[in-house]
Amino acid sequence: KSILLINGPNLNLLGAREPSIYGSTTLPDVIHAATQQCASKSIAFSHIQSNHEGVLIDRIHEARGDVDCIIINPGAFTHTSVAIRDAIVGVDIPFVEVHISNVHKREAFRHHSYLSDKAEAVVCGLGVFGYEAAIEWASRNVKPKEK
Ligand code: DQA
């Protein structure tokens, strides 16, 4: 089984950025925990963070045929990007959408997601535990693709 974790724009600032909303855990902390969690379940794990929409789209394309589940926090692209939606739907890989904050408790422009209606699951408001929860869900529910 293999999981790709994708973090979009500004998530490189996790820990420093608006800590009252996003907490004090850093992205390297999240990656470290996810790496260990996957290793303990013998799941192959890869990850990318980028502030660039096209880089994220290219990585999604590369995952085709190679990754069984994508866990994605698209950051602000959640609310803007038809292109990321098309990419992730286009490669036909099941995905879980993760938001650290409860986007529904925040500004109205964060209430709509271009991804949620295509996601297997959406996690929001659990803080960085959302990543752990999503990986746990994937480890239990995602079937490795026949190749
Ligand atoms: C976020 C919520 C988005 O609205 C925001 O633009 C982010 C982070 C979250 O994890 O809560 O960058 O996806």
Automatic annotation (TrEMBL):
One Pfam entry name: DHquinase_II
Site feature location: Transition state stabilizer: 17
SUPFAM superfamilies for the chain: Type II 3-dehydroquinate dehydratase (SSF52304)
Keywords: Lyase, Quinate metabolism
Enzyme class per UniProt: lyase
Reactions catalysed: 3-dehydroquinate = 3-dehydroshikimate + H2O
Entry's Gene Ontology molecular function annotations: 3-dehydroquinate dehydratase activity
Gene3D superfamilies linked: Dehydroquinase, class II (3.40.50.9100)
Active site (catalytic residues): 22 (proton acceptor), 99 (proton donor)
InterPro entries referenced in this protein's UniProt entry, alphabetically: DHquinase_II (IPR001874), DHquinase_II_CS (IPR018509), DHquinase_II_sf (IPR036441)
Pathway the protein takes part in: Aromatic compound metabolism; 3,4-dihydroxybenzoate biosynthesis; 3,4-dihydroxybenzoate from 3-dehydroquinate: step 1/2
GO aspect biological process, one term: 3,4-dihydroxybenzoate biosynthetic process
Enzyme Commission number: 4.2.1.10
Positions with a binding annotation for substrate: 73, 79, 86, 100-101, 110
Its biological purpose: Is involved in the catabolism of quinate. Allows the utilization of quinate as carbon source via the beta-ketoadipate pathway.
Subunit structure: Homododecamer. Adopts a ring-like structure, composed of an arrangement of two hexameric rings stacked on top of one another.
Family affiliation: Belongs to the type-II 3-dehydroquinase family.
Protein's UniProt name: Catabolic 3-dehydroquinase
